[in-house]
Specification:
Largest sheet: none
Shape: rod-shaped
Strand content: under 5%
Order of helices and strands: H
Number of helices: 1
Amino acid sequence: MIIIVTSIALVALFANIQRFRRGQIETIVVAPTSSATPQPR
């Protein structure tokens, strides 16, 4: 029983870390594109 609870807690922790890292990556990628000036045609 303790092993099951521990493994579920580790999976939840890993999922939260991945979501946080994905949010950091998205903000890093989106920031330069929003500040780019449009090219005149």
